[in-house]
C-alpha cells in the first residue's frame, strides 16, 4: 500500500497500521452481515453478536488512533505520507461509524422481535440495499489497500444505486401506511433500518474519496462527478 522509505522501520509502521485498518474493516463487514441476517431471519442471537462485536470495534478504533498519533509525533511525515496517515485516521473513524449503523440495525431488530411487529412488511426487500452497501464497503476497503483510484471512482458512482433503493423503499412504506394505518409504527421501524443501510453506503463513499485524496492530493468532497474525473486524469 505504501511507497518505500529510507527508514525500513517507518515502512513497517505504515504497513502495520494499514493492516490494522483492514482488520477493522473485516470486523465491521462481519457486523453488517450479522445485522442483515438478524433482520431477515428475525434472529435475536445474531443481533446480540453484532452488539458484542461493537465493543471490540470501538476499542480497535481507539488503538489505531493512538498508533497514528504516535507515528505522526515521531516521524513528522510530510506530503503523501501525511495525507496517507490523515486518510487512515478518517477511514478508521468511518469504519467505526459503519459499526455503529450495524449496531443500530441489531438493536432495532431486537425491538421489532420483542414487539412482534413488522413480519408482514417488506423487510426482505431491504436485502438488495444491504447487499449493495456491504459490497460497496468491501470494494472500498480493497481499493484502499491498493490505492486504486479507478475503483474509488466506481464506488462514488455506485453509491447512487443505494440512494435509489432507499427512495424506492420509502415510497413503498408510505403506500403501506396509507393503506393500513396500523402498520405506521412498524413501517417507521423499517424506515429507520433502511436509513442505517443507506448510511453504510455513504461511509463507503467517504473512504473512496480518501483514496483520491491520498493519491492526488485533491479533496473531492462536495465535488461534481465531472470534476472528480478530471482530477483523476
UniProtKB/TrEMBL annotation:
Q: Give the source's domain of life in one word.
A: Bacteria
For this UniProt entry, what is the primary localization, expressed as one broad class?
cytoplasm
Annotated keywords: Cytoplasm, Phosphate transport, Transport
InterPro entries from the xrefs? PhoU, PhoU-like_sf, PhoU_dom
- Report the Pfam families cross-referenced here: PhoU
The leader peptide range reads none
Q: Give Gene Ontology CC terms.
A: cytoplasm
Q: Which residues form the PhoU domain?
A: 22-108, 129-210
Name the family the entry cites.
Belongs to the PhoU family.
Entry-linked PANTHER family:
PHOSPHATE-SPECIFIC TRANSPORT SYSTEM ACCESSORY PROTEIN PHOU
Query: What is known about what this protein does?
Result: Plays a role in the regulation of phosphate uptake.
Assembly and binders: Homodimer.
Q: What is the recorded name of this protein?
A: Phosphate-specific transport system accessory protein PhoU
Amino acid at each position: 500500500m505504501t511507497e518505500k522509505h529510507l527508514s525500513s522501520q517507518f515502512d513497517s509502521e505504515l504497513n502495520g497500521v494499514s493492516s490494522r485498518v483492514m482488520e477493522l474493516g473485516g470486523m465491521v463487514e462481519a457486523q453488517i452481515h450479522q445485522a442483515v441476517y438478524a433482520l431477515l431471519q428475525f434472529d435475536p442471537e445474531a443481533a446480540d453478536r453484532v452488539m458484542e462485536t461493537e465493543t471490540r470495534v470501538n476499542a480497535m478504533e481507539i488503538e489505531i488512533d493512538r498508533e497514528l498519533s504516535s507515528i505522526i509525533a515521531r516521524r513528522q511525515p510530510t506530503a503523501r505520507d501525511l495525507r496517507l496517515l490523515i486518510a487512515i485516521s478518517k477511514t478508521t473513524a468511518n469504519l467505526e461509524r459503519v459499526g455503529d449503523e450495524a449496531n443500530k440495525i441489531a438493536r432495532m431488530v431486537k425491538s421489532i422481535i420483542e414487539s412482534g411487529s413488522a413480519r408482514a412488511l417488506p423487510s426482505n426487500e431491504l436485502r438488495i440495499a444491504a447487499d449493495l452497501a456491504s459490497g460497496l464497503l468491501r470494494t472500498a476497503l480493497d481499493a484502499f489497500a491498493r490505492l486504486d483510484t479507478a475503483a474509488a471512482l466506481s464506488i462514488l458512482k455506485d453509491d447512487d444505486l443505494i440512494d435509489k433503493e432507499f427512495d424506492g423503499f420509502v415510497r413503498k412504506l408510505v403506500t403501506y401506511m396509507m393503506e393500513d394505518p396500523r402498520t405506521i409504527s412498524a413501517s417507521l421501524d423499517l424506515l429507520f433500518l433502511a436509513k442505517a443501510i443507506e448510511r453504510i453506503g455513504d461511509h463507503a463513499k467517504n473512504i473512496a474519496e480518501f483514496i483520491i485524496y491520498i493519491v492526488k492530493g485533491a479533496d473531492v468532497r462536495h465535488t461534481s462527478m465531472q470534476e472528480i474525473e478530471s482530477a483523476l486524469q
